[in-house]
Amino acid sequence: MGTPGMEESLLSHESDTQAYYGRLQKARELSRRAADSARRNGNKESAALEQVDTAEWEAYFGNAAQARQVANGALALAPGRDVQLSAARVLATAGDAAQTQMLVDKLNKEFPRYTMIQGCWLPTIRAEMELNRGNAAKAIKLLQATSPYELGGRLYPAYARGLAYLRLRQGGAAITEFQRILDHCGLMGNSPLGALAHLQLGKAYAMSGDTVKARTAYQDFLALWKDADPTRHCAHALAKSWTTWPTCRP
Length: 250
Description:
Number of domains: 2
Structural class: mainly alpha
Largest sheet: none
Oligomer: single chain
Helix content: over 70%
């Protein structure tokens, strides 16, 4: 602590870890401290990346309005390439199609030969947009391009594909995607998506009629979130009632 660069990095990692376990109030506090530390040290890019990282797990936990606000704040602070990419993922998940499309068009034009952007991130973002439009089949088609690059993209495309299969009520295919994330948990690290993969796996098993494995997956998730904030996040509400499926975004 007190060392420029190191302080915000450690606070950021701890923030993600708290979010992984559903302790969002603590996660937000640590994220704010990380961003403040980066700004004090004159590193606007690092501060913006921290903000957009926070916006990402807010979006996946169903807090769309807060996710959009934080992501747009990050873009206003330091709209570099990585901030734009992360903000586009957040805004696509949170349902801001117009702003997402603007960022996608800009990134596509500015980085036509950047393999991970063209092969992984842009198809994933476009797929998230289609999911929000109710076009799960089109989302799956868009994600075909990501297959060679998904491990480098920390399996974010696999999570999006799993959600798409759930929308199509193809539980078996969804199981494959979410189980692949859990099989590569080292790539996910302390990303909150690693915890949510247990949740979505439970839904996929239940959809496939395997209530025993569904219950196990939900119990695994609830074990991770045993000390989670007592708030009404979509993910928590879904896990508490493993036989019903709320329509809220996971």
